[in-house]
Amino acid sequence: MPKKMFRRFMPDPKQLRKHKHLKIFGALLHDANLWHLNRRSAAGAFAVGLFMAWMPIPCQMLFAAGAAILFRVNLPISVALVWISNPITMPPLFYAAYVLGAKLTGLSIPADQGDLTWQWLLSAMGTVGPAFLLGCFIFAILSSSIGYFFVRLLWRYSILRDWNKRKLRRSQQQKH
Predict the structure, then answer these.
(1) Residue among 55, 58, 12, 64 at smallest CA distance from 35
(2) What percent helix, strand, coil does the chain show, rounded to 5?
(3) pLDDT digits (tens, 9 = 90+) for 85-137
């Protein structure tokens, strides 16, 4: 079941190998493990993609692709999951990371942040930056761990369910 579900949404590996931004990885993209879909590669891809989604850096997709290649996990899933943090979801996600980091570092969270401009952001980065980065790192570790173990459990559940269905069918066929 998970394999069928994931395959439905996966792009064609040949198309991804030709993608202009992924060409920097060259021959590394020809590793078959990057395109396999099994419990290990899918769970690892979730861990990589969810971790990179919390990183407040440009080109998250390239870093996710590099990590997928490094850990030899499913590349399309890793890259796709980075889009959890997109221009719409980024503000609430990163604000939550800042709040968590501020609480852990003992930094008070001002009620009025002022105007959210580049100048304010650059001037405040010295005070809010460490708390923000700590929150991002904690959420990255938590979400990647939860994603990894959830996919492993879902995959195992699916296999056990299929075995039980087969066993039931076999026993019903033997009765007739």
Answers:
(1) 12
(2) 75, 0, 25
(3) 999 999 899 989 999 999 999 888 766 655 666 676 677 778 888 999 999 99
Token pair for 152 = 């492993």
Q: Which two tokens stand for residue 113?
A: 């942040």
Of 73, 59, 94, 90, nearest to 147 (Cα)?
73
pTM assigned to the model: 0.79
Look-up: residue for tokens 């221009």? 87
Percentage of the chain modeled with pLDDT above 70: 78
Structure tokens at 159: 């296999």
d(CA 80, CA 69): 14
Contact 17, 88 (CB under 8 A): no
Residue 170 neighbours by CB under 8 Å, 6+ apart: none
User: Is the CB of residue 12 less than 8 Å from the CB of residue 43?
Assistant: no
Q: 19-75: per-residue pLDDT in tens?
A: 666 666 776 777 778 888 889 999 999 999 999 999 999 999 999 999 999 999 999
- Please provide residue 31's backbone torsions phi and psi, each rounded to the nearest 5 degrees: -65, 120
